[in-house]
Amino acid sequence: MKKILIAFAICLAFAVSVAFASPGADLYNSKCAKCHGKDGAKTSGASGGVMLKGQSVDDIKEKLLGYQDGTYGGKKKKTMERMAGKLDKQQVRQLSRHIGGL
Description:
The protein is mainly α. It has a single domain (23-100), classed as Cytochrome Bc1 Complex, Chain D, domain 2, CATH 1.10.760. It contains 6 helices and no strands. The chain has helices at residues 2-19, 23-31, 33-36, 57-69, 77-85, 89-100.
């Protein structure tokens, strides 16, 4: 019985963590984390020296939209234009909220 209760508690904890996860977390992990790091603090050459961690939601949204329309970009502009160009408006909002919370 004790093992069943422990297994149930683990499953419940997992379900709660999934339910409250940021909608943009999966998107960030699949599209951004490779270059910018899991927590947005990576500043390797692949990320163009940009650290996402600590930027506001509005800054991230503005930059993503700028990459989409070609009005923003630095060293890795072409890469980011290609990546951001694949995002719809909802994904831009989700990513901005997620990254702004890192």
